[in-house]
Amino acid sequence: MNIMITAAVHLDESSVGLPQQCASQLRRADDFIKLAAAASVEALDMCSGCQEPNEESGLFVGTAFGPMQTNFDVLGLIVDNEQTSPTLFSHSVFNSAAGYLARLFTIQGSSQTFTDFSWPFFQALAAGSGAISSGRLKQCLVVQVETYSDLLADARQQTGQSAKPWQAGAVAWLLENQGDRTGWCIDDSSIDSSPAAAAEYLHRAEYLHVGGSVIPCFDPLSAAIAITDLVNQKNDPEKSLHCEITAPYGSVGLKLQHS
């Protein structure tokens, strides 16, 4: 069964706005949820002719650092002996975005959140691909969303290396059975994770090897963004795309076939 990438988008915090069709439901959401929702709306809107999400649709969200600032906002209230808002607390949970997305887009199938410092997007992608391959789902949304905090930036600086600020953002792919359509399909994938020092996860020395080129990726979203850009190139695409990402904490292999 060929699994087709029917939409692939990425956006950063500077370009995100509340999607009009769900703005009222996101009024109290934090940036983590808003970014995930905005990327998902864009992916779903990009795919004309795709089936509407239903009980055979799934959702797989990956994140390295989750709603970090919201976590600290809740902890600050607790430390100061102030009353904690139930809504704020619920948004501090790592699967908060998945809950919002499932409700907003009526995704009634599997919903899963992966928290992984190494390869969160690719863990979610592997799970989504597997769910479609098994016949359990016909469609799934794969999302990575990241927001950060001042404390994380300070920790990165304290490692003694130059730490370029990370920009919050999100990547969203929509996967479906290929049917009789043409486009990029997932041919093969692999993930290898190995323990590394904490500083390695804070500086993200990842390198994407593709087509004889090496693309440096120095934040948790960079590799997923770079591959999304390759997928969206329209000018006479090659028949296959072999991507390998290497880092001190392991490697990822992803082979895409255009058919």
Q: Number of DSSP helices? A: 8
Q: What is the name of the CATH superfamily?
A: Thiolase/Chalcone synthase
By CATH reckoning, the class would read Alpha Beta
The secondary-structure element order is EHEHHHEHEHEEHEEHEE
CATH topology: Peroxisomal Thiolase, Chain A, domain 1
Q: Give the overall pLDDT as a whole number.
A: 89
Gap from first CA to last CA: 13 Å
Using DSSP, what is the number of strands?
10
Q: Largest sheet, described in full?
A: 10 strands, mixed
Total domain count: 1
The second-level CATH architecture is: 3-Layer(aba) Sandwich
Instruction: Indicate the structural class.
Output: alpha+beta
* Backbone CA Rg: 18 Å
